[in-house]
Amino acid sequence: MTDLKKLNERVSAARRETEARGETFYPGASRIHLASFPPKERWDDWVELDSKSWPKRVEKRYMLIPTTCFNCESACGLLAYIDKDTLEVRKFEGNPEHPGSRGRNCAKGPATLNQITDPDRILHPLKRAGKRGEGKWVQVGWDEALDDIALRIAKAMREGRQREIMYHVGRPGEDGFTERVMAAWGVDGHNSHTNICSSGARAGYQFWCGIDRPSPDHARAKVILLISSHLETGHYFNPHAQRIMEAKKSGAKLVVLDTRLSNTATHADFWLATQPGSEAAVMLAIANHLIQNDLYNREYVERWWNWKEYLEATHPGLEATFESFERMLKAEYEGYTFEFAAQESGVNVETLRRVAETVATAGTRLSTHNWRSASSANEGGWQVARTLFFLNALMGAIAVPGGTYPNAWNKFVPRPIHLPRHPEYWSELTWPIEYPLTMYETSFLLPHLVKDGRGKLDTYFSRVYNPVWTNPDGFSWIEMLTDEAKTGLHVALTPTWNETAYFADYILPMGHSSERHDTHSYETHDAQWIGFRQPVMRAARERLGESVGDTRHTNPGEVWEENEFWLELSWRIDPDGELGIRPFVESKERPGARLTVEEYYRFLFENSVPGLPEKAAAEGLKPLEYMRRYGAFEVERDVGPVYEREVPAAELEDTVVDAHGRVFSRAKAPAPVNLAPTGAPPGDAEGRRFAGVQVGDRVLKGFPTPSGKLEFYSPTLAAWGWGEYAIPTYIKSHVHPENMAPDEMCLISTFRLPVQIHTRSANAKWLDEIAHTNPLWLHTRKAAEIGVRTGDLVRVETHTGYFVVKAWVTEGIKPEVVACSHHMGRWKLNEPSSGAVNAQRQLMATVSLDHTGSDWAIRRKKGAGPYASSDPDTSRIWWTDVGVHQNLTFPVHPDPISGMHCWHQAVRVKKAARGDRYGDISVDIEKSHQIFKDWLAKTRSAMDHSPDGTRRPAWLVRPVKPVAKAYKLPEPVVGR
Amino acid sequence: MNRARREPASAREGELFRSLAVVCEPTRNGAEVVIEALGLGGVPSAFSYTDLFEFQLYPYASVYLGVEGMLGGEARDRIAGFWRVLGETPVAEPDHLAVLLAAYAELADREGDAPDDEARSRWRHARGAFFWEHLASWLPVYLGRVAELDEGFYAKWSELLRMALTEEAKRFSAPELLPLHLREAEPLGDAAEMAGEEFLRALIAPVRTGCILTRSDLERCARDLELGSRKGERGFVLKSLLGQAPKEALGWLAAEARRQAKLLRGWPEAFAPITGFWNERAMATARFLDETAGALDD
Q1: Which CATH class is domain A737-936?
Q2: Three-class secondary structure assignment of A394-429
Q3: Model ipTM value
Q4: Per CATH, is B15-180 categorized as 3.40.50.150?
Q5: Residue B290: enclosing H or E segment and its boundaries?
Q6: What is the pLDDT of residues A557-566, one digit of tens each?
Q7: Residues B167, A24: C-beta atoms closer than 8 Å
Q8: Which of A3, A6, A15, A243 to mutate to test the interface with B (most CBs of B within 10 A)?
Q9: pTM of the entire structure?
Q10: Could you state, in order of their start, the residue ranges of all structural domains in chain B?
């Protein structure tokens, strides 16, 4: 008689043994679930029937080569199917070996095929031939472009104009490579898109725990609370969505705050259609319920919050006991009743109560997430993330299974071959003095800061970024980019045409996801993994035994990749080493020669990723071969609460413990293995470094905050002039009804269309066919009031101008709110002429761009339509409507603390006026500049509020940190 | 139940069912490791697989549980509905035996992975329901025929699967009600008034007759009765046999129904409600066919 239990164990053992060899146990493709992926041991020669040959059974043989998607930030794994006969990519599917996406992709992943075969893509370096924006280009060689740019940068450096060199990135897609290039150049020229994206949320998380991103462990949660639409879009949406659904299937409750009836809202157990900007009030009402009813994790709060610091700072007369703190905690939040939250949010009291009661049942298994959404849309939006994480802090649901982790513990950034110097300069154009606490560069203010004379740009790189279209107030960007006195040379690094590239001097074509190298690691769950994006054709040719010089030789046309480009450009800027750049781009294997990407990644994978060499060796591979073969590696899983880890005795030497339990040590810190960015708590006055916190009789790692604890009370905010916001609180938004005129309503402009991604996907025909327009969501009541029906034109007036768009009448939005997705409204200035393609045509209208003085306008001349090209599908384009570019009409709204652009707009919505045409846009950029000044007046400048003579708290995360002396307040005074 | 990729874990309850599922798929490169782990010996020939699953015993629950006796239909919809109730998007062929076994394995794994008693209980309930409704409801009659038609590799596989099902039946006692597939299926007797073609189709619908008529069964019938065997789909062959010697053919079919009923005897008591249903159906079919044959004398 067969013993089934033993048989089951035998099968499991066989599976483990097979998988340990790097092979697949359950063969595919089959019906048995994810075994439908081709087994990895057959990725060199995979046979499928050719669909186009049907009904004949024609076998196609493929090499399957992994890479990662470069559309949204998630970096999900892709497998390129490369036809072995033609050496062309035939399709992209999911990579089952990728720990984050686990073989699954959203629509944008497979659509990479459209992007690499787009007939309108830019294949050769182009140099401007006419005036900026005129649309005239000549093809140039890479050498000419590189030499020209390198000479210019070297000249600026020799003349001490390092501040005039800037690199502005949209989608980084990699962990720190280009930041290190900027640092190697010695310039504080890194400029990200963060302040139009996530500064609000980052500030909320950073002030709590010293790490600025959340990593929710959705799959193991009991209650999931989202202030976002993460089941359909957003950061890590595919990895997160699949884990949210797993949790739901295990009985987890899903709470979604979303003003719109989004796809995420439809999956929620509790959908709270909150008034925009009221989200923090709702969070605080939930917190108050937990606090007043003693439903929070007392032991955790006492152990990990900096409650003593709070008492000392705000109630110095009270005895510093936890009981005193609890009394004060109750008093601080007693006003945040369900009734108050209902008044602010429009959600009824009973629903709020039920949600709070549900949250209370989660214990430590409460996963919460906010990234953009409300945090990125409201003045004070950073408090949305801070009040959301407040709930985790109350429940002890931080870095435990089912809770929310600080991202740096669920992310792995390996140490590169060279770690560059710190710049000696501070860029006032990206880190202005008025924003000492901004979470990264105030990038969207650049045209206004330049206009105010704070600096100019000698060489400006835009890289996979389209500020003219993506940022608010795009006409001000056009004004800056077309003024050669303000922008000396603009180099656009982009795979495809975009609105910013039209105003460039050089357009240098860079590869899509399957045409470039990057490593990256994202916080998709409680694990640390690295993904490897690679040029698949290069990998294929190398697999076939060919030697490839650089990625250009295997990409279409002369398309290159940024990493090789930066290495080569750096080499040419400093050919003799005079500028001190050369050592950071020099080969270690071949001194005197330039570093290659091959050597860069070989070093990285052989020396800086724990466990990878061993894992590779087990399969008879070298680390780089392993990554080329599988495209991803899991460094650690179930990381758990890092803050509870004991500090090794070797790291404690001549220690001092201060009154708050902070432990400082003279022992040298071990070189970090993981370079994921975290806060850097300051040392003591005697030169010891921060080592951890004393908890009981042990020294634990704690959090990377100045206190080493969770900072319920932020001494940083208090010290830099914002004492009233030092604890989690509610700030009424700029679109709070009290702050808007009676006839104004809130426009939500930040939501995405699930299959599109900013300006990254306009060249993906499959996606364009699915989603190509952005009507204005308008409630039936409001529509009746102004007399419009679905499809009618409406004029939406902002504080600087207006746009004309079609209405979509729906009850999926609150009556007092309108919404329009920002994903649409792409435009081009020129129709391709004389056979030359100088625009992307599938999703861009042709427009006229006019301006008189400060008045700028765009008028649509022609929508999308069919055209002949190398792709027969372009002759089948049936859509003409490509939406309206609303962001042009938005003035800048920099939050005075986080620096986040507060996206929500107070607008008036009217039936279109006589003469209004679809897509019309009109803006007065002088008004925009005045609004910039109005918001600037809300700030508390470091010149007036710095507690220590510096421009910014040194412990806060900052890409490319300059040397300490650059932190000193400037002389003479700026910003006055 | 689409399964997320999992790292190698310790022995999982669903492993055995998942590996047994591999065997009723066309054999692929790599399957030999699974087959060896199951102790089934060498890889079966492509001929064995094709003959058994493509020509004789289609591995789809809907063929045996649907009143049409064909792929798809309401029986498949019911199984797809089970996926939907769990919040899953059904796969294209949710009633394929490989999918059913893999889905059952997934439910077992989910029960094992459940974070708390409440979730575990929910998965256990789902697993039990799935077992009785969609596996136990037809596999006793199906596996009996597999063991008969392939005396080698697949007989061993069916025996392993029978044992695994028996263990599961001990875990989940049979529900009071018969599976919906069986409750809803009208017997052959009700087809007495049907037109000829409809009657022929009903004869090859197992859930109505209680027995499975394969191609090889019909060939055996022709041989036994020394009738000409036409080539074609089963309904056509059966029509031909009944056309040549109606009384004898009906008698043969009645005897076959009684013979197949005996194949159910090896199943343990836990399956009594199910095997009882199939036995009664087969015996009722036999009686009906005998009566029909007898009526021909008149």
Answers
A1: mainly beta
A2: HHCCECCCCCEEEHHHHCCCCCCCCCCCCCCCCCCC
A3: 0.88
A4: no
A5: helix B272-297
A6: 999 999 999 9
A7: no
A8: A15
A9: 0.85
A10: 15-180, 188-297
